[in-house]
Amino acid sequence: MNGLTLVGLAMVVFACAYLFYGRWLARSWGIDPKAKTPAVALEDGGDYAPASRFTVFAHQFSSITGAGPVTGPIIAAMFGWAPALLWLLVGGVFFGAVQDFTALYASVKNKGKSMGMLIEEYVGTTGRRLFLLFCWLFTLLVIAAFADIVSGTFAGMLKDGTVNVAGAQAASISMLYIFVAMGFGVFIRKFQPSGAVKLLVALILVIGMFAAGMAFPLYFDAQVWRYVTFGYCFIASVLPMWLLMEPRDYLSSFLLLGMVAGGVIGVLVANPVLQMPAFVGFTVQGHSLFPILFITIACGAVSGFHSLVSSGTSSKAIENEKDMLPVGYGAMLVESLLGVVALVIACATATGGQLPAGTPFQIFAGAVSGFFQMFGLPAEISACVITMCVSALAMTTIDSVARIGRMSFQEIFTPGAGEQASSFQSLCMNKYFSTVVTLVLSYGLCLAGYMSIWPLFGAANQLLASLVLISLAVFLRTTGRQGWMLYLPMCFMFLVTMSALVLSVTNIVAKLGDGSFVLMVDGLQLVLALALMTLAVQVVKHCGSELLGHRQPASLQGSN
User: Structure pTM?
Assistant: First the structure.
């Protein structure tokens, strides 16, 4: 199969989905360009801060586009490129983009509330606390996994004593990104430049940071970068959005969009032929297509984590309701396109139906680096750019998750209507205390390593998607809006993820019999898996009763 044909098909599908299905959803539910959004009405210079459409798009896209859209499709190619492609197209259009847009929409219509607080509005306090506890446990997994990815990517001195020049250069550039982003944020806040001026200044800063970082690489080992990464997470969690995260995501978006564009243009120019079969079988290497395919490809198709970004941070920056469609629905489609490009590139580099040796990112990075060199970019610079893109994918996810984890922890202990906060609750609602608790526990999980965490993270992520979809269905029904388009996705994802978690628990328990059970790794995963399954069933029980019932909330803020 010709790779150019598949990428062209995906671009047409996603463009039509945005123009027709996305706009139909917006018209069906109602968009009011004249309404005051939470970012404007509740602006506090911290979490609530209105920003331009592209700035919020850059934050949303940078935050949701982690390692998933590259890693998942390449791993799933073991079943053949056709099942992976179909899931990226169908999942991206009808599952993921709908979830992201609906979560953003519901939050903006409800004073920028997070998913947990929305559940309290439409389901009740118990449902809120169960969901928030699930979200908080989930953020611990995400922070741990991505912190391990970042520290490994930045390691300039490897365990065997070899030097990783590209990683050391990317680390130096990333550190510059933090401080330059804060200066850029102050510049935007004080002078409020036009879009053209902001774009020009950003491009100059990005080029300058690359030049300085490549000239002065930082050679530290992975452990040092692990400490630095968690220190950065603390800062990103407590500083105002406009000061660090928004400007950093704006600057990072040029790298991420450039990587997508480089992959698409490379496919257009090289016109590669896929060297993998369209379909291998329903069972490959002991893995069943159902449910593994739908767990493996999360980002790029549907990811519960995206809803936390939509309702946790992006909704508090939307300046006009018209911006919700490109930010919520559009950003997800661009991520799905990245997933298709990664799938095509990986399958084009296969030999005899077998993918090259190496991690999915190494396969993808090697191919895209080759494209950049084909365009005339020197090999050393190309390697640095790709490594920096990989780190940017992880860094722009981890800072958002740290902030969301902190907020989820605070909201767990937020008293319900008519309740008075105790001293302990007040302590837990403190943003510094909640950040420290979240990061300390995440660091403990991080010590287990990325590969030990990722399988459970994938299942929990997709289970979160099903819980979010049923919660949003309750919101749409309660506020008199059509919600039938969420019913099939929420049921399918719940069935998929509960099946995957049952398989995970079965495999972990089996290790007890063969003596390979490791308490601090397998034991922790077993406890978390059982806790997530229990919480999920409870959330579905509470939300399901509301979806099938007739209760109306005290205030229909979502009916605006």
Answer: 0.85
